[in-house]
Automatic annotation (TrEMBL):
<dbReference type="GO" id="GO:0005886">
    <property type="term" value="C:plasma membrane"/>
</dbReference>
<keyword id="KW-0552">Olfaction</keyword>
<feature type="transmembrane region" description="Helical">
    <location>
        <begin position="79"/>
        <end position="97"/>
    </location>
</feature>
<protein>
    <submittedName>
        <fullName>Uncharacterized protein</fullName>
    </submittedName>
</protein>
<keyword id="KW-1133">Transmembrane helix</keyword>
<keyword id="KW-0716">Sensory transduction</keyword>
<keyword id="KW-0812">Transmembrane</keyword>
<dbReference type="GO" id="GO:0007165">
    <property type="term" value="P:signal transduction"/>
</dbReference>
<dbReference type="Pfam" id="PF02949">
    <property type="entry name" value="7tm_6"/>
</dbReference>
<keyword id="KW-1003">Cell membrane</keyword>
<feature type="region of interest" description="Disordered">
    <location>
        <begin position="1"/>
        <end position="26"/>
    </location>
</feature>
<dbReference type="GO" id="GO:0007608">
    <property type="term" value="P:sensory perception of smell"/>
</dbReference>
<feature type="transmembrane region" description="Helical">
    <location>
        <begin position="44"/>
        <end position="67"/>
    </location>
</feature>
<keyword id="KW-0807">Transducer</keyword>
<dbReference type="InterPro" id="IPR004117">
    <property type="entry name" value="7tm6_olfct_rcpt"/>
</dbReference>
<keyword id="KW-0472">Membrane</keyword>
<keyword id="KW-0675">Receptor</keyword>
Amino acid sequence: MAFKRRNMSEKNTKQETTEIGPPRKTELTPAVEANRFFKALSGLFGGILAIFNVSIIVMLTTLGFIITDPKRTSQDLATLGVLLVEELIAAFGFCWFGQKVHDEGCALTSALYTDVDWHLLPYTSRKTLLLMVIRSQRPMIIKGWTRDYTLSGLSDILQGAYSFFNMLVAFRSGNK
C-alpha cells in the first residue's frame, strides 16, 4: 500500500501528490543488525553459560569439600588450592566482563537522556534517537538460561557453591 504526500508550492496552488515507496535502508540498519547479532549470540551461548555455571558450582563445592578433609596432605592441599583459585578466577572473569557490558549499556542510556539536545536535531535524527532510547530501556546483559553474568551473578554462584559445600560438610560429619 502506497501512502501519498501532498506538496504545496508557492507558485502553484493546486495540490500535487507523490507516492512514497517502500521503506529504505536507513542509518539504523547497522544498529538493527547489531541487535540481532547480540540476540543470536546470547541464544547460542546461553546454554554454554548455563553448563559453565553448573560446572563452576560443582567444582567449587567439590574442591572446597576435599580441601577441608582433615586426611589430606599439604601437597594435595596446595594442588587443590591452585585449582580452586583458577575456578574462582574463571567465574570472576565471566561475571566481570558481563558487568562491563551491562555498565556500558547503562552509560548509553544515560548519555541519550542527558547529553543530547534532541530538540535541536532534524526530524529524521529525532526519530532515530527515539528508537535508540526505546532500545536502551532493556539493558544488555550476558545471560545463561537462568542467571545473569554480572557481579551480582558472581555472588549467586558463590552462594550456591557455599550452600552445597555446607550440605556436604554436614553429610561428612553425620557419617562419623
